[in-house]
Write a structure and sequence with these properties.
By secondary structure, this protein is of the alpha+beta class. The chain contains seven helices and 17 strands. Bound molecules: uracil (URA).
Length: 286
């Protein structure tokens, strides 16, 4: 037994059209419930037990949907915008109206963005208290200070003195444009860019590679997306369980789970494996 919802809501949730389009379709006899033509779109149906068809094809009801998008530059992480295309507009075909991006990536940032209608999961992934690792690949200009890794591991202050939690910096390549991986557990406005600014460096390219247990599918080109697999969904949900990890002093700490990040390996980062969370200090106030 599922939830009892109106037939028109059932079909609009599944991206089959607006309420008035569904009403028109019903008038024309295109909708059936359990094998009977149904013209009353305000009647209630059970999201699991009732079989709803449109034009003869079964429409299964999915309560929660999850998509992984490789966000391209020039698209905003929002559901509506007057100036730029939005990430939800990149989803084509049948799409439900209640999908939203989990967190924001800047207009010029690429990479992993989760789109869902599951508010609880979104909250858990975004809350700083949940300590979910977000790993970014960045190209930066400027000379990184010798102690950049330590400064970030200790928890630094941004130029405007805002404190940020400890972060794990891994250097892939040093040069006039350096390539680095940074794992943070917060999502302050322009946080990665501002952390490098605090070191007198400038981010010239930024891509998110992972969020919790979810890794960007390397086969997705910018602008492409796919539904999460069942395994990815289960891992993401389970990643809120507690686990014990060690901080940079080697002391044990309780930390929300997130699987070991193999970002360095995955991104071909010269075998630099970022152990997600290995830098974390006491849960809650670091
Ligand atoms: N930090 C940034 O500076 N920009 C992003 O888009 C994400 C994290």
């Amino acid at each position: 037994m599922g939830r009892q919802i109106r037939l028109d809501r059932f079909l609009t949730d599944m991206g089959k059209g607006s309420r008035s389009q569904i009403r028109q379709a019903a008038k024309k006899g295109r909708i059936q419930v359990n094998g009977q033509i149904e013209k009353q779109t305000d009647r209630k149906v059970d999201t699991i037990d009732d079989i709803v068809t449109l034009d003869g094809s079964r429409v299964p009801y999915q309560t929660w949907e999850y998509f992984m998008l490789n966000k391209p530059q020039g698209v905003v992480s929002a559901t509506e915008d007057r100036r730029y295309p939005t990430v939800v507009e990149l989803l084509h075909g049948d799409k439900r109206k209640d999908l939203f991006p989990v967190g924001r990536l800047d207009l010029d940032t690429e990479g992993l963005l989760l789109l869902t209608n599951d508010g609880e999961l979104a909250h858990n992934l975004l809350s700083p208290k949940k300590h979910v690792d977000k790993t970014y690949f960045a190209k930066i200009e400027g000379k990184l200070p010798e102690d950049a890794i330590e400064q970030m591991a200790k928890g630094m202050r941004l130029k405007d003195q805002t404190p940020v939690q400890p972060a794990k910096l891994t250097i892939g390549k040093l040069g006039s444009v350096s390539e680095v991986f940074l794992t943070i557990q917060e999502g302050k406005f322009h946080q990665v860019k501002r952390m490098f600014e605090a070191l007198d460096c400038q981010v010239v390219y930024l891509k998110r590679l992972s969020m919790g247990s979810l890794f960007l599918d390397e086969t997705l080109q910018p602008g492409e997306y796919r539904p999460l697999t069942q395994e990815e969904i289960i891992c993401l949900k389970n990643s809120q369980e507690k686990r014990t990890i060690r901080n940079s002093d080697g002391q044990k700490n309780n930390q929300k789970a997130g699987r070991e990040s193999k970002i360095g390996e995955k991104a071909g980062g010269q075998g630099l494996v970022s152990s997600a969370g290995a830098f974390a200090k006491e849960s809650g106030d670091f």
